[in-house]
Structure prediction request, 129 residues.
Amino acid sequence: MSFIALVTLVVRDYDEAIAFYTDALGFELVEDTDRGDGSRWVVVRPRGADHGTALLLARAADGDQRASVGAQTGGRVGFFLHTGDFAADHARMTAAGVRFLEEPRHETYGSVAVFEDLYGNRWDLLQPK
Prediction:
C-alpha cells in the first residue's frame, strides 16, 4: 500500500460542490461519471497533484448523511491543503469568496490559516516550513 487514493466528502449537491472546489479552491475535476441510478462518481483534487489523495464528492443519500454535511469531523479541522505559496493562494482564495476563520499565522511548522468549505467543514491552508 503506497497511499490513500480517495477520501469521501459528503455534499449536498454535486454541481455546487464541483463549482466550489474547482472555482474557489482551484482544484481540478478528475472524473464526473453518471452511475445510472441518480448518483455520480465525482472526483476532484488539487490542480497538479497527479498522485496522492483526491476527494470523492458523494451526494448525501438519506437523512443521516444530510445531517453530516458540513460536520464530518465534529467541528475540528479535518482537511489539510498544503501549498508552496501561502500568500498567493490565501489571496486568491479570499478573492474567490472562501471564508477564512482567522488571520494567517506563522508557526514553527509553517504558515497556516483555517478556512471553511461551502458546507462548513474546516480546512487548514498550510505552507510547511
In short: Strands lie at 6-11, 27-34, 40-46, 54-59, 77-82, 99-100, 105-107, 110-116, 122-128. The chain has a mean pLDDT of 95.
